[in-house]
């Protein structure tokens, strides 16, 4: 079979899985798409010998390139202005026409979950995702990351212990670990939708009841646009901040509800161009954290 035909069939079969892996590794939609595309292009340069396990080969290429990308981006992350948040992945399109969306909807890709993965080293992240999300056995994982099965087993258990809680930020804006929290369900979705309605209508009592007293808001502008470089702490301050933003909305401002990583969120626009994406973390029946991405580089794929 021609390499081109193999690549075409592999693209249809494995792109959703590979995108899922790369996005969780990197927290970047654009970088994940680039790496997955490069992985399929590498099939053309693989030579005439048939690849025995195409799925494992592609996962190995994607994993290694993600690890390389993370290492090269480490210094940039160290000097990043304000809190770093992952690129938002909107999942409210037509899943049948977008295989990566369809796959991503099946698994947790919330901002809190992606921040949690950032606590792991690049190798720990790869081993954890290959085992926990893609359900690979340790023999397959060892062949992908180039370590022994025993070492991969240890890495996985260490990573799982490390992310036994959800992610949050300290008062200086640095990410840290907190206690375990359940994933968002139908009740959490209703809470978020009610919060967004209250925000649009200026219902302050409803906003206060939706937010936990120690709630935090994190805004990622990356130093490219105006954003809070430190977390905004406390329900009262968050409400003043958000209502103030709405009151100062520029001409051409609009917004719409959206699914961000499978959970309810909000996208805002100025003259039809995306200006921010808002997502949430829920715990104990209240909103514990709000994440707002305003860095224009992280909104290029948002429509």
UniProtKB/TrEMBL annotation:
Domain of life: Bacteria
One of the Pfam families matching this protein, by short name: Sigma70_r2
RNA polymerase sigma-70 region domain: residues covered: 11-75
Gene Ontology biological process terms, A to Z: DNA-templated transcription initiation
Domain RNA polymerase sigma factor 70 region 4 type: 112-162
GO molecular function list: DNA binding; sigma factor activity
InterPro entries, per database record: ECF_Sigma-70_Domain, NTF2-like_dom_sf, RNA_pol_sigma-70_dom, RNA_pol_sigma-70_ECF, RNA_pol_sigma70_r2, RNA_pol_sigma70_r4_t2, RNA_pol_sigma_r2, RNA_pol_sigma_r3/r4-like
Quaternary data: Interacts transiently with the RNA polymerase catalytic core formed by RpoA, RpoB, RpoC and RpoZ (2 alpha, 1 beta, 1 beta' and 1 omega subunit) to form the RNA polymerase holoenzyme that can initiate transcription.
PANTHER family tied to this protein: ECF RNA POLYMERASE SIGMA FACTOR SIGJ (PTHR30173:SF36), SIGMA 19 FACTOR (PTHR30173)
NCBIfam families: PRK09636.1, sigma70-ECF, SigX4
Name of the molecule in the record: ECF subfamily RNA polymerase sigma-70 subunit
């Amino acid at each position: 079979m021609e390499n081109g035909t193999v690549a075409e069939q592999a693209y249809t079969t494995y792109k959703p899985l590979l995108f899922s892996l790369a996005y969780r590794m990197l927290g970047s939609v654009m970088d994940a798409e680039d790496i997955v595309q490069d992985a399929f292009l590498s099939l053309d340069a693989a030579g005439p010998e048939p690849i025995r396990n195409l799925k494992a080969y592609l996962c190995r290429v994607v994993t290694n390139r993600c690890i390389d990308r993370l290492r090269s981006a480490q210094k940039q992350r160290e000097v990043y202005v304000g809190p770093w948040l992952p690129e938002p992945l909107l999942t409210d399109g037509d899943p049948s026409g977008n295989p990566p969306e369809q796959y991503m909807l099946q698994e947790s890709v919330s901002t809190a979950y992606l921040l949690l993965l950032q606590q792991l080293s690049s190798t720990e992240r790869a081993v954890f995702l290959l085992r926990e999300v893609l359900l690979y056995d340790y023999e397959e994982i060892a062949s992908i990351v180039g370590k022994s099965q025993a070492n991969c087993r240890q890495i996985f258990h260490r990573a799982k212990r490390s992310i036994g809680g959800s992610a949050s930020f300290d008062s200086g804006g640095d990410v840290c670990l907190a206690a375990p929290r359940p994933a968002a369900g139908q009740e959490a979705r209703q809470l978020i939708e009610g919060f967004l309605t209250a925000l649009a209508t200026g219902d302050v009592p409803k906003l206060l009841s939706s937010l936990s007293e120690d709630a935090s808001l994190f805004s990622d502008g990356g130093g490219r646009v105006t954003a809070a470089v430190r977390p905004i702490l406390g329900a009262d301050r968050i409400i003043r901040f958000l209502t103030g933003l709405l009151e100062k909305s520029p001409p051409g401002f609009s917004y719409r509800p959206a699914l961000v990583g499978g959970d309810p969120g909000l996208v805002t626009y100025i003259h039809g161009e995306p200006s921010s994406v808002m997502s949430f973390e829920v715990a104990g029946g209240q909103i514990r954290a709000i994440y707002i991405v305003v860095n224009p580089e992280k909104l290029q794929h948002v429509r």
